[in-house]
């Protein structure tokens, strides 16, 4: 999960992009910075955000001295911190830049996360990079009728028989 893809932390971000970030550390394949999430009920929960070259994000919680939460996703850290409106971690999890709390969505730290999430799911692209349909087009070898199989339900249903309509 935390494996880099041969990239060094020095090449993840330019030094100008990281200026002013609090407690910045560069590792072999990650960049680590202090982060937090504010709950109106419990106040600030502080942690350390690691951004890996692969696009993975991990937070080690430091909300209390005895907290043993480690390797949390940003969404899990947001929930752990007691945030009432969880699910918007890109806006609720922040880092400190030059003394100000700045949400992750306004920083360069999500540059590799966004690229990794697009490649992983939701893009509907095939191995050749072109978009593909979830539906399947199947041609019967015996009668040469083209069928459209709709893939949204648990059962495959034949919607249209194109050759039969001609």
TrEMBL record:
Pfam families per record: SAND_ULT1 (PF23292)
GO molecular-function terms, A-Z: DNA binding
GO CC terms: cytosol; nucleus
Keywords: Membrane, Transmembrane, Transmembrane helix
Transmembrane segments: 145-165
Domain SAND as annotated: residue spans: 16-106
Classification via PANTHER family: PROTEIN ULTRAPETALA 1
Protein name: Ultrapetala
